[in-house]
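#random but structural
TW: two for the price of one
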Amino acid sequence: MVKRFNIRVYGILINEGRLLVNEEIIKGRSITKLPGGGLEMGEGTIECLKREWREELDMEVTVLEHFYTTDFYQPSAYDDSQIISIYYLVAGEVPDLIINHVNNERTYWVDLGEVSAGTFTLPIDKHVGDLLRQRFI
């Protein structure tokens, strides 16, 4: 039984026909997702997004617009929570190479033309992959 909400906030950075994605190990499982993470108590969603990008990628981003918020029920694969994910299109200084050693994460570019549900691991991200394909391809 679901006992709480788990709110996640992610950024979508597109540059020169490429999408920035993040790969990390969560509880022994490799997950491909967009950069971002969990909302902390007392924090707004945009503040959370900016903090996550600073912590994970050492990047400052500007939020351009809201892209998507989960509109279906998604239980967590890891605990007894319901996941609600919020995605924003972002802009920022674009590094040629990102070396990310936080929590054994790897951040890299994917050609936007190749992005689909199959790019990502988790159900909400898969849906966003399809939405990105519909909007930008």
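TW: number two ↓
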Amino acid sequence: MKFSRLSLSELESLEKEFIEFLAANGIDSDYWIKLKKEKNEKAEKLIDVFSDIVWQKSLDKINFLEHKTGTSLKLFKCDKETIELIGIDGDIEKFNPNLNSNNKYSIYHHKKEYVPSRDMELFRMVKTGCSITNEILFNSIKKLL
């Protein structure tokens, strides 16, 4: 397994897609029930394969991520070969890129290649609290640099 198994609630929300996945692999509902009872290891393996497919498709669609705390905002632009970071440290709750502020902020910028790979780095970032977002805030703050 490359990523992690989807939770039961995630699998339930993807029930239609899972049924289509099983059908594409020649497994109808009767055979699926039999697999779960008699060959649970094989059924578990199919769930793992499906989970990896879902994760892969989701990660492939990510273009921007953000990670926000009360004192830090990290915005990421996720290109094919590199990831670009714009970080802001300070009172993030009061930060507004469109206004001059008396509050002190540290703004930094960095770009690097993925380690070990795009998929694995984005997966780790999502699992540790990054949220998928759009380009609006990233581009607004990049103009300040």
